[in-house]
Design goal:
GO molecular function, one term: methyltransferase activity
Radius of gyration: 20 Å
Shape: globular
Number of strands: 7
Helix content: 25-40%
EC number: 2.1.1.-
Enzyme class: transferase
Largest sheet: 7 strands, mixed
Keywords: Methyltransferase, S-adenosyl-L-methionine, Transferase
Pfam family, one: Methyltransf_11
Distance between the termini: 76 Å
Structural class: alpha/beta
């Protein structure tokens, strides 16, 4: 009676070594980024634009999830390359696309050149260059976890909200700066906000926050 052949591994040894190396590198990068929060450098803009990301962060679906009204004034804080800006502008009255890197702003401006209701503004979440109670919706997609003081950033976003306004926060598991949804909820509570809606799952979530009682 002959012995049964040994089962082959699901992945060749070389592939397993590469996969393990990539996993360790990602974990190390995540630890480093969380210890030193900072925006994604302009040279890494391709990370924001890759087709795989659009599978779970499609601009049109994201804009729909924000439940914008035609008269809404929207602040897209940390607009980056402007991936979501045209979709937001198609559903709102006006979009202020804000970023701390002028190169990202120029990229976003080229992408929205045909949209008369988009204004590109240089600034950051630490001190928004907008007056109190001036926008209806603040959109923060993969941005909040890139700032050193996320609670202060949320307070600053709340400052520019009109009565009944809201803040939409989206985070994605693939990003090195990703944090769990519960962490963002805790930051929001510390900033005097409450969660009023939740969409998505651990892979890519979208939470909506508002000052207490303003959403009712």
């Amino acid at each position: 009676m002959t012995a049964a052949p040994a089962a082959r591994p699901l992945l060749p040894r070389a592939a397993r070594v590469v996969l393990a190396g990539l996993t360790l590198a990602h974990v190390a990068l995540r630890v480093w980024v969380r210890a030193r929060p900072r925006p994604i450098p302009y040279g890494w803009a391709w990370l924001l634009e890759n087709p795989w990301r659009r599978r779970y962060r499609d601009p049109g679906r994201l804009a729909d999830a924000c439940a914008l009204k035609p008269a809404d004034r929207v602040l897209e804080a940390g607009c980056g390359s402007g991936l979501f800006t045209p979709a937001l502008a198609a559903r709102a009255g006006h979009v202020t696309a804000l970023d701390a890197d002028p190169r990202y702003l120029a990229h976003a401006a080229r992408r929205t050149a045909g949209a008369a209701n988009v204004t590109a503004v240089h600034g950051d979440l630490a001190a928004l260059p907008l007056p109190d109670a001036s926008v209806d919706v603040v959109v923060l997609v993969s941005v909040l976890t890139e700032v050193p003081r996320p609670v202060d950033a949320l307070r600053e976003c709340a400052r520019v909200l009109r009565p009944g306004g809201r803040i939409v926060v989206g985070e994605e598991l693939f990003a090195p700066e990703y944090v769990r949804a519960g962490t963002v909820d805790a930051w929001a509570r510390s900033a005097g906000l409450e969660r009023v809606a939740r969409q998505g799952g651990a892979w890519a979530y979208l939470h909506t926050y508002a000052p207490p009682h303003s959403w009712r």
